Amino acid sequence: MGMSPRAHLAYGYDLGGAEDFKAAERDEYGSPKLPWFPDDDSEVDDFGSEAEKILLASAGFAEEWTPAAAKAGYYDRKRDAEKRCGVELDTSGHYDHCGWVLIAKGSEQSVEWSQVMALDSAEMQRRPAAEGWDAKLRDALTALGITPTQDGPKWLVYPSYG
Questions:
Q1: Number of independent structural domains in the chain
Q2: How far is CA 78 from the centre of its chain?
Q3: pLDDT tens digits, residue range 19-32?
């Protein structure tokens, strides 16, 4: 299976990437400067993995995977914590040069190649408040210790390729 370009629409925050982190917590080179994120030459993917651990812990899930845990309902407990958390960290761009987008779970829609997405502006205005997305995103940012430069959550369009 090959790689495909996708366009995504989701509600949340653009956090930028490893060299243009869009938050107050950045070093002089524009990289994330957070107590839980290594400041060495770690792979970009580490940000997503570490952020996921923190978000799941904020929802009461701090288990490590083991074969025994997997047999004892690990994935069900993890899925429940993901639902409670209500947000996810997605990536934009290409895996060689990606950015991070913190989005409300259930807000993301995407299309590829020649597909077209119709937008309903009334629904886009209604859903954030009706589904409590602002509070979930705010709680996630607090758990992660991130102060985004973006002025509040917004509907974002972002690409991915992979």
A1: 1
A2: 16
A3: 899 999 999 999 99
CB burial string 106-120: b at 16+ within 10 A, e below: ebbeeeeeeeeeeee
3-state per-residue secondary structure call for the chain: CCCCEEEEEEEEEEEEECCCCCECCECCCCCECCCCCCCCCCCCHHHHHHHHHHHHHHCCCCCCCCHHHHHCCHHHHHHHHHHHHCEEEEEEEECCEEEEEEEECCCCEEEECCCCCCCCHHHHHHHHHHCCHHHHHHHHHHHHCCCECCCCCEEEEEEEEC
Domain hosting 133: range is 5-161
Q: Give the residue among 45, 32, 42, 1 at the shortest CA–CA distance from 144.
A: 32
Q: Is-above-0.85 flag for pTM? A: yes
Question: Which tokens hold the place of 99?
Answer: 């950015």
pLDDT digits (tens, 9 = 90+) for 101-154: 999 999 999 999 889 999 999 999 999 999 999 999 999 999 999 999 999 999
Nearest to 104 by CA among 94, 89, 117: 89
Amino acid letter, 151: D
